[in-house]
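Q: I'm writing up a methods section and want to include an example of the input and output format. Could you take the sequence below and give the corresponding predicted structure tokens, formatted cleanly so I can copy it straight into the document?
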Amino acid sequence: MISLLQDRYRPGSILHFFDVTIVLPLCNFTSHKETIINNLPHFQYNGIEVVVVIQDYSIGKEQIGDFINQYPFINWVILAPTSLAEKAYTTASLINVGIQYASMTYLLAIPPAYQLDTDMVYEMREALAYYQHHFIAWSTSNSCPLEYYMVSKENLDKVGGYQEAIDWNRMHNNLMQRLQEAGVKRLRFGRSTYDSHLTPIPKSAKHRLNQEEDSFELYYHWQRDRFKLSTCSTYLKQFLCHSVLDEKTLTQRRKILLLAPVYNEAKLLPDFINHMSPFCDGMIFLDDGSTDNSYELIEGEKVLLKIKKQREFFDDINNRNRLLETAFFFNAEWLLFMDIDERFDPRYCNLKRLAGQTEFDVFAFSIIHLWNSVDTYNSSFPGSNQGLVRTCRMFQSKGHLQINTQKTLHFTPIPYFTRLKLVNNSILVHHFGHINKDLRKLKYIFYQKEDKQKDLENYEYLIDDSAILKEVSKLTL
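A: Here is the clean output for your methods example:
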């Protein structure tokens, strides 16, 4: 039986991409800064966008910039009224401005002084994955009763947003009734003790909301604005060493950005860089403390950044998440994970065509394991379909992303699984890591040591001679 914790990490779990905008209406940024910082762990999940709407127009862009650069791994959207705006905004009107800027499918508005519960956002979003034509009402304890709604932006637009003339608790109950009148059903979490007070929404509400948007200035948007070079440089200080960066490297728009972890790959690195350069617009390498000269060999026109860290133990998931964090500083449409012992089949390698298919978020490639020579592959490789192994490698860059898995080995190296397409007939990868007996013996020893979770029952296939080999040239997709 799969435990609740294991179920949370399944490929279809919303943990991999929440698709939620959290709106924080603030009267004053400085007075609520501490609570925002305390909630940061809940804002860092994949697919969470945080829209901060500040009532005080005297807040400076420099102060906001310093805050963002101090906490960069959040998908921030920050707005404040223009200096010409003289209106005293209600909480509801600030939320309505935030709705206009929300880019995710679902929206949750919370008061700035509220400390999020550990699993509150996850549980609400997970429920909406199964009850799509509903909204979630989350009630806090009776000692300090408050109610929060998670609802799709489409349904909020349908009812015209929040009613702006009433207080926090009554405006949520008012929204609840208008959603229900529009045919959106309610799911209740926690305990609610409120009476409903219906205040009809004015006919001009939608028009007024659009006017409100014009009165606010967009200080920062994670999809539009790039980080300062100093912010990236501060992040890179944690590593042993790294190559030199400049502002243009960070801000230049790139279609495909390749990410590659490295450990003692001196023999393969020069050819890998030469081979991969035509397929991408830039490369980032993370050297996990190589004891050979791998780091020094990472050179090339497409190499944007190379980093070397201290190796404490084998930790592939951490290395790939560090690469994702680093990639967040760059301006790329697609991210691509490749290993140093992999090459594309020249017949099936049109990545640029895939990058134009924006109706998909994730692409899965086919991989074959070369065996005994570059001309033959193992058609009986465990878990394969006559030697073809499907694995996701290329995905759209969607803000700050991390791979969430409990596995230490054999995990899918992508952070989310939405709008996935299996590219059965266009991309084929050759894996060279098992090409001879010596390499297979080393891999066998490695897995015996590192596979503490027993992800595979055994690795005898690496050291026996039972593999059924087929010719690569005769393989067609």
